[in-house]
């Protein structure tokens, strides 16, 4: 008997499952039936495309057997099956990134972690919510050797060669004592299958034993004979076995759509929205797409698991192709079923095929159209943007064809609204028509951005500014937008401040008055700044830092960041407020030491106000202490 240790993360997951407080334990049947259906899908495809497997003759089906005497339930299929390596990689280790994300989200608090099960279906492992012991006996199609995997859900599992006639997988579940009455009940199992798996495309048979009483004749009854009782083995199909997406929309109910979503997504929540389309004409295909209520846990992982399955004429082709929809729609779950693609379609063909390109283009428009419908309901759309605003921003950058449609769907934080996010349309509607620009500020901390000294002139002039606090993405994507309905995007950290009403002569007079101190500050700070200027953009603060729009590195920064390259730091422009007492006093100061100290403090405090790092915090503290000592 070959004993193997579980990967650490699997051990954590099984510990949670074994001691789960999750109330909806019945989902283990849904998960195992779904896995069985996937295995049959894969074999049916290979029987058409792989010469070695074309001779295999099977009638695709899933069988569930309940045994009241043995306190067990067995779920089997005649699908592709697994060999030794498959069993180790599929069950002994965590292969899917979504499962990794699930484990990473675990806190160690059993109650909180059990709630996570509801947010993320954990496939095979859910069986340990009800099982004392599990045996998986599997034989891969085209191979001679079968294997038996066994575990009680603790730290290890056994894996040994066994004999099995047909390809496919049998999962034997020895039930925990407290679960026996639930999962050896015919009516209970049948209800669960109809609820979750009614539209699995293959027949699901329930095998069970039933005590049958033989009817007595009238003469036997008169003779006082007792009725004979016997145990009969029975088998009946308990699902419709019709691929849901092939059914007419008018025939299907919301509950059926929702349960089918749970089956293909392994999610326990209902979807936020769905859209079902049948296209006829030049291309014939059916699509069924869902938007989950909660974003997939692996949405921001490079190795995210795609959510869309491709079928050709109801034959499963792949669930591992990330290009069936654009990557910014990677949160979408669903089905694409084409009548026109070849069954032996390869990844290369998928990427270059005109039929697939048309399906993809049409599918994107359908999904975006459904999101647009959601946007009509303010509360629902708030839920949507909490989950998916960021991927939509990626779409603005990635999808030039649908850029305008996506821009209508993206929402932004704003200086004029601290409670709700706003659309670009509403920003434009309430702005001064002479403005002709959409002003924004980018950073990492919303509070810092809202209180930036750079905001002062915009507040004073009642100009709304978008608060973009997801710096990693906003800094790259927003400059690339260019314009929205002819209104250009302007970063307030690099553009000119709003006009104050000063004449050109008045501005020149201020510059002349402070010319000497500006030159001294510039000389003191050296390469730490690219320039020093007086400004009328400030009202309360003595100084601020802005980007140099003429710095070639600043212009290249967004491009370099989008390519994942490190961006060298550019020296900012320091702007000082000639109306502020500190700057006025400094202008009349003759003490070179004081000028040097205050110059550095003006720069460092301006950088800190923007959430930027200062190069020498120790020097900053010393200068601050010097100034405080003099003041006292």
Task: Provide a compact summary of the structure.
This protein has 632 residues and is α+β, with helices and mostly antiparallel strands.
**Ends apart, CA distance between termini:** 82 Å
Task: Give the helix level as a range of percent.
Answer: 25-40%
Q: Do you know the CATH topology of the largest domain? A: Heat Shock Protein 90
Count every helix, treating DSSP H or I runs of 4 or more residues as helices.
23
The biggest sheet amounts to:
9 strands, mixed
Number of domains: 4
Sheet-strand content, in percent, reads 15-25%
| Widest β-sheet, arrangement of strands | 1-6-5-4-7-3-2-8-9
The tally of beta strands, per DSSP, is 23
Poorly predicted residue ranges: none
Tell me which CATH architecture of the largest domain applies here: 2-Layer Sandwich
**Roughly how many Å is the radius of gyration?**
33 Å
Mean pLDDT: 88
Describe the global form: elongated
Structural class: alpha+beta
Considering the protein shown, what is the CATH homologous superfamily of the largest domain?
Histidine kinase-like ATPase, C-terminal domain
Instruction: Report the CATH C-level class of the largest domain.
Output: Alpha Beta
Describe the structure.
With 632 residues, the protein is an alpha+beta fold. The protein folds into four domains: 217 residues, Histidine kinase-like ATPase, C-terminal domain (Heat Shock Protein 90), CATH 3.30.565; 131 residues, Ribosomal Protein S5, domain 2, CATH 3.30.230; 105 residues, Rossmann fold (3-Layer(aba) Sandwich), CATH 3.40.50; 114 residues, Four Helix Bundle (Hemerythrin (Met), subunit A). Helices cover 40% and strands 21% of the residues. It contains 23 helices and 23 strands. The strands form four sheets. Strands 1-6-5-4-7-3-2-8-9 form a nine-stranded mixed β-sheet, with helices on one face. A hairpin with a 4-residue loop joins strand 2 and strand 3. Helix 2 packs across helix 7. The model has no long low-confidence stretch (mean pLDDT 88).
């Amino acid at each position: 008997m070959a004993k193997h240790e579980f990967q650490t993360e699997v051990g954590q997951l099984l510990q949670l499952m074994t001691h789960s407080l999750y109330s909806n334990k019945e989902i283990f049947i849904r998960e195992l039936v779904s896995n069985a259906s996937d295995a049959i899908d894969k074999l049916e495809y290979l029987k058409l495309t792989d010469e070695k497997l074309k001779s295999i003759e099977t009638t695709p089906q899933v069988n569930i057997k309940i045994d009241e005497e043995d306190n067990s339930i067995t779920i089997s299929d005649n699908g592709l099956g697994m060999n030794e390596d498959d069993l180790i990689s599929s069950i002994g280790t965590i292969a899917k990134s979504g499962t990794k994300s699930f484990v990473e989200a675990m806190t160690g608090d059993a109650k909180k972690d059990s709630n996570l099960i509801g947010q993320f279906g954990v496939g095979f492992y859910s069986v340990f919510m009800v099982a004392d012991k599990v045996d998986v006996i599997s034989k891969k199609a085209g191979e001679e050797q079968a294997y038996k995997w066994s575990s009680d859900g603790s730290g290890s599992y056994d894996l040994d060669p066994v004999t099995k006639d047909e390809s496919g997988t049998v999962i034997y579940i020895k039930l925990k004592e407290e679960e026996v009455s639930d999962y050896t009940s015919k009516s209970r199992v049948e209800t669960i299958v109809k609820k979750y798996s009614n539209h699995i495309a293959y027949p699901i048979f329930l095998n069970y034993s039933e005590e049958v009483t033989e009817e007595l004749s009238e003469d036997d009854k008169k003779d006082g004979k007792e009725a004979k009782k016997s145990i009969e083995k029975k088998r009946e199909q308990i699902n419709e076995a019709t691929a849901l997406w092939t059914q007419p929309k008018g025939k299907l109910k919301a509950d059926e759509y929702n349960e089918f979503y749970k089956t293909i997504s392994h999610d326990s929540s209902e979807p936020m929205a769905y859209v079902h389309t049948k296209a006829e004409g030049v291309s014939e295909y059916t699509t069924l797409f869902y938007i989950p209520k909660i974003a997939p846990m692996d949405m921001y992982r490079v190795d995210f698991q795609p959510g869309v399955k491709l079928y050709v004429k109801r034959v499963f082709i792949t669930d591992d192709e990330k290009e069936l929809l654009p990557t910014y729609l990677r949160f979408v779950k669903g089905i694409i079923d084409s009548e026109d693609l070849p069954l032996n379609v390869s990844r290369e063909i998928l990427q270059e095929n005109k039929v697939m390109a048309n399906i993809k283009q049409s599918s994107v428009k359908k999904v975006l159209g459904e999101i647009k419908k959601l946007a009509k309901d303010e509360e629902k759309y708030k839920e949507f943007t909490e989950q998916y605003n960021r991927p939509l921003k990626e779409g603005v950058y990635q999808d030039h064809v649908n850029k305008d449609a996506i821009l209508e769907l993206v929402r932004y934080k704003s200086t004029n609204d601290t409670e709700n996010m706003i659309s670009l349309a509403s920003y434009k509607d309430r702005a001064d028509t002479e403005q002709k620009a959409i002003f924004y500020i980018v950073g990492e901390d919303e509070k810092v951005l809202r209180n930036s000294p750079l905001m002062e002139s915009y507040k004073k002039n009642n100009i709304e500014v978008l608060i973009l606090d997801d710096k990693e993405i906003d800094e790259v994507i927003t400059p690339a937008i260019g314009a929205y309905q002819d209104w250009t995007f302007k970063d307030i950290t690099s553009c000119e401040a709003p006009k104050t009403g000063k004449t050109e002569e008045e501005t020149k007079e201020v510059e002349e008055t402070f010319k000497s101190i500006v030159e001294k500050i510039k000389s003191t700070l050296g390469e730490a700044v690219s320039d020093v200027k007086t400004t009328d953009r400030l009202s309360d603060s003595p100084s601020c830092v802005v980007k140099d729009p003429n710095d070639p590195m600043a212009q290249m920064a967004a491009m370099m960041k989008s390519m994942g390259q490190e961006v060298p730091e550019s020296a900012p422009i320091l702007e000082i407020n000639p109306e502020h007492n500190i700057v006025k006093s400094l202008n009349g100061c003759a003490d070179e030491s004081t000028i040097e100290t205050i110059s550095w403090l003006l720069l460092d405090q301006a950088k800190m106000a923007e959430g930027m790092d200062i190069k020498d915090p120790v020097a900053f503290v010393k200068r601050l202490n010097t100034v405080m000592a003099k003041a006292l």
